[in-house]
């Protein structure tokens, strides 16, 4: 199936229902109007002599024009290339050059920035879609639909290739995982790159209404859920942490949220403490999804199941069950922990990495995607993520999972955030290093934290170096950006060693 077929079906089934609403601009489109806008966007590209199959860069914040360009490109047989506006000019130039875009569309806040990024034509995102042109040939399921850059590297960029067929399979997975009824409201406060717009698309394809709530604001998120009668929403770990912090500092009256059913979150980057606090704030409405840009929406743990696991204290690391079209397995088990690398198979997998055949061959093997995550499967086929294979620290001939050490540090009452990694060591091979952020007003020494770890961890897992910083640089998805962290450490105080 192709993405255009999903759009056609939705505009036929629910022509007069509201499909998209933007709280910032006040703009609103029905499903019939969305269908016309997508055709008009195709004409917009044809009338500018952009050949079908060309890559269309999109550099903008979330808005209805963004979604029309994103979906319109794919529905008409072009390749959308969503770009992260928060990246540096050097990072954006690297990705844009790698993609070889034929056109860069930009939002109002990126107007000045866009002109210096490429020699390709640069145009503002169109806000009306009334152009006409001869209809384009329909794409096939094997046609490339999207390039999704997974990092802002200034080295060789890495773009995930998705086809019409693989993204259609993602839409199907989401519909199976989180059934949506017509006119259910999904409140979106996330950037739409690199893959979030596909989650939004799945909601539309079931007749649901998308409400674009602008940039996430922890002070207004709960009241916006209430005001829009939202059924679903999604936050990344960084946003959840900010929401919890705001509510603890400036508590508001509890919101009943009678319509709200599920907050989807990728929980691998959530500590147990944050998960506990989020559940206390929102009730048993947190649902866990597991996937990645290479294999979106692969496993899912619905809110009622997560709530039941929490009652029996079995929720640690749980990310759900494989969706109907997905297969999961564990390979190459670790000799100490028994955990294996999570591999995924299914029609939703990427086609490979753009212009990176060696990396594709190393990651996709015989229809299975190597995730790099270490996991455990229980007898009921519930997947738990316990760490990253490539992040394992080999110290003194022993294997140490950084997440276990970080969780121990986070259990200390003075510690707000922690990151653990290995550095080369002539004696140990690698030494365990920890970088710690303390709660405001708290004080603890590196030696005291080391002694605390010794009461919980085996001796070979205890950090040999601890350093304190004011914050950990994290990506939008909550992952610590270790390159930036090391730069911070270069200018920080001398490490405190145990």
Structural overview:
The protein is α/β, with parallel strands linked by helices. It folds into 3 domains: 175 residues, Rossmann fold; 175 residues, 3-Layer(aba) Sandwich (Rossmann fold), CATH 3.40.50.12780; 106 residues, GMP Synthetase, Chain A, domain 3 (2-Layer Sandwich). It has 15 helices and 27 strands. Strands 1, 2, 9, 10, 11, 12, 13, 14, 15, 16, 17, 19, 20 and 21 form a 14-stranded mixed sheet that branches. Strands 4-3-5-6 form a 4-stranded parallel sheet, sandwiched between helices. A 4-stranded mixed sheet has the order 24-25-26-27, with helices on one face. The longest helix is centred in the first third of the chain and has 16 residues. The chain is globular, with a radius of gyration of 23 Å. The relative contact order is 0.08. The C terminus is likely disordered.
């Amino acid at each position: 199936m192709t993405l255009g077929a999903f759009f056609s079906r939705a505009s036929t089934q629910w022509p007069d229902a509201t499909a998209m609403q933007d709280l910032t601009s006040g703009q609103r489109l029905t499903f019939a109007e969305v269908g016309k806008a997508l055709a008009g966007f195709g004409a917009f590209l044809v009338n500018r002599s952009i050949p079908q199959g060309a890559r269309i860069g999109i550099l903008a914040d979330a808005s209805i024009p963004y979604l029309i360009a994103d979906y319109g490109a794919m529905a008409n047989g072009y390749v959308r290339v969503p770009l992260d506006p928060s990246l540096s000019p050097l990072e954006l130039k690297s990705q844009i050059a790698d993609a070889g875009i034929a056109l860069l569309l930009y939002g109002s806040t990126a107007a000045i920035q866009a002109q210096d990024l490429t020699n390709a034509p640069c145009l503002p995102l169109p806000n009306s879609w009334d152009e006409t042109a001869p209809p384009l040939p329909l794409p096939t399921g094997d046609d490339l639909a999207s390039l999704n850059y997974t990092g802002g590297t200034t080295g060789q960029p890495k773009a995930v290739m998705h086809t019409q067929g693989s993204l259609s399979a993602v839409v199907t997975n989401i519909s199976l995982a989180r059934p949506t009824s017509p006119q259910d409201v999904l409140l979106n406060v996330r950037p739409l790159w690199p893959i979030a717009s596909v989650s939004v698309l799945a909601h539309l394809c079931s007749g649901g209404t998308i409400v674009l709530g602008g940039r996430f604001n922890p002070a207004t998120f709960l009241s916006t859920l209430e005001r829009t009668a939202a059924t679903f929403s999604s936050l990344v770990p960084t946003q959840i942490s900010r929401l919890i912090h705001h509510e603890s500092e400036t508590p508001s009256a509890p919101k009943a949220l009678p319509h709200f059913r599920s907050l989807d979150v990728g929980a691998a980057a959530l500590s147990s403490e944050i998960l506990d606090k989020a559940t206390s704030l929102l009730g048993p409405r947190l649902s866990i999804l597991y996937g990645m840009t290479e294999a979106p929406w692969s496993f899912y743990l619905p809110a009622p199941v997560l709530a039941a696991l929490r009652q029996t204290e079995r929720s640690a690391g749980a990310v759900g069950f494989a969706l109907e079209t997905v297969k999961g397995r564990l390979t190459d088990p670790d000799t100490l922990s028994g955990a294996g690398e999570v591999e995924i198979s299914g029609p939703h997998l990427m086609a490979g990495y753009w212009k990176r055949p060696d990396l594709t061959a190393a990651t996709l093997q015989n229809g299975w995607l190597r995730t790099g995550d270490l996991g455990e499967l229980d007898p009921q086929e519930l997947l738990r993520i316990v760490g990253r294979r490539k992040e394992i620290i080999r110290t003194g001939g022993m294997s140490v999972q950084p997440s276990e050490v970080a969780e121990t540090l986070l259990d200390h009452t003075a510690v707000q955030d922690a990151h653990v990694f290995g550095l080369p060591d002539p004696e140990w091979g690698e030494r365990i290093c920890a970088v710690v952020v303390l709660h405001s007003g708290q004080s603890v020494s590196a030696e005291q934290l080391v002694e605390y770890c010794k009461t919980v961890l085996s001796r070979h897992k205890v950090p040999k170096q601890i350093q304190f910083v004011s914050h950990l640089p994290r990506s939008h998805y909550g992952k610590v950006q270790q390159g930036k962290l090391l730069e911070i450490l270069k200018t920080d105080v001398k490490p405190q060693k145990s």
